[in-house]
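User: I'm putting together notes for a lab meeting next week and I want to include a structural view of one of the chains we've been expressing. I don't have a solved structure, so I'd like a prediction I can at least talk through. The sequence is below, exactly as it appears in our construct file.
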Amino acid sequence: MFSLPKTVAAAAFSAAVLAAPLAHAAPVETPKPKLVVVISIDQFSASLFEQYRADFHGGLGRMARQGTVYPSGFQSHGMTETCPGHSTLLTGKYPNKTGIVANDFYDLATGKKTYCLADPSVVLANDPSGGGRLASPKLLMADAYGDWLKAVSPKSRVYAVSGKDRGAINMAGHKADGVFWLETRFGMTTWVSPGEDAKAKLAPVAAFNAKLTADQKKHPFTWTYGDKRCAALEDDYVTGGRSWRAALPRPAPKDEATATDDLSVSPYTDRVTLDAAQALRDEFKLGDGEATDVLTISLSATDFIGHRFGTKGPEMCDHLLRLDDRLGAFLDSLDKVKGQVLVVLAADHGGSDFPERLAQQGYDAGRVPPTQWLKDLNAALRGQLALAYDPLVQAGGIESLYVVGPDGKTPTAGDHARITTAALAILAKRPEVYAAYDSNTLFTMAPPPKGTPPDEISVAERMRRSAYPGRVGDILVAFQPYQTPASAGATYVASHGSPWNYDRRVPILFWWKGGPARERVLPIETVDIAPTIAAVTGVPVPADVDGRCLPLGAGPGC
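Assistant: Thanks for the context. Below is the predicted structure for the 558-residue chain, given as structure tokens.
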């Protein structure tokens, strides 16, 4: 167990080559699915897939050994966060077309930070009073595969589940029949628009939620080792001045709020999400009819655990092995589907481990405390430009900076130009900054030649693909590799969001029962997923997508 990534990848590649059909074998038939299941594992980097690949014997193992595996899939944009990453998976478009540039952006019209899917006109089904984060697909500026499908097949059903609203909404698109995400100790919730009935909108998951809350009371989840081999990774660390031990079980929560939070940051989140997906499939008999149906599943626990505990400790080890087992049971449940099932697995982004552990392993890794870093930048700008107000630049995320006026809103054209020019010059001299880009320059930058591999595009091009006018910052910052723009706290030690391959590179797998075992080592992109699914289901693809169709077999398709 815990083989080195290169060793695992080489062994898996050799196995795939040996298992692949010989040149004279019959051509692989293109799948003709009646149910398309698209799974995103949040923060599931290609390196994590490679590290544990030999130890996966459940669902992940089945897909890796019996499916078409692209070990080098890429999110091709620069600001690799959950919201923009999910927006690429089934739209076939980069964030500069989906409009989902980051988890949060700064709204110059209001002078406030805005959530990527914010919609103040809706309420949550679990809180009709208007509490909680209010989100809907309103800000998603592209249609998803489910929308394309429904345009030509009105009888098709589209359902989505996730541990996060942004995981469910972005993959479902605008016309889904049900979009649900987990509110711990409530169950699955959704948004409710004016005039809609909350109870009716929750009806598809009402029975599931009732069973879930009853099970939580009878069988509370406690995170202990499911596989004791993971205990070999236990160790002591100091992050942000806090000493802690990477180990299971986790210490008992001090109060109810902590208990709820700790429940989310555990394998429980993905177990419940897969249970909900299975319940929806069974309730609506998805895949049993004449029309093609879609079920999207975004599994959030890997991201929650990666942020709190890092990616290379016993917590991530135990979680991934549990997830592999649960995915195996989920794939088994799909045997009941009357039609063929195509399962696609990818990720919204990758991630790196926390810098203190990386530094112990010999990497030049460190932290960029975002609050202080922004204060220092504003102080330097005020001193240089003799402007009295503060701040001169605000942040959506620290990689996306917005030039503001004295009221925190749009500045005068003259001040905008002066502040932008000065900020770019200051950032160019900062050792922790790889490069800073004027977004107006990115908007007019010519794309690379058609066919340029995603692992060879420039950092500037990666940032261009994150630049949507009116939402992205005036200045985009790419920090040096392994420089983490996040402080370390009790609930947050590691992050992602950079334009570097450890945050961009993810596995992409296509699996159907009886399909081929193939390893395709050349790089592809997450925007290729939607056109590929569309081809095998006979759905027209919008002309302006960025992705391309990948041939899954012989016959109709690409």
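A couple of points you could mention at the meeting. The first helix runs from residue 5 to 19. The longest strand covers residues 505-512.

User: Perfect, that's what I needed.
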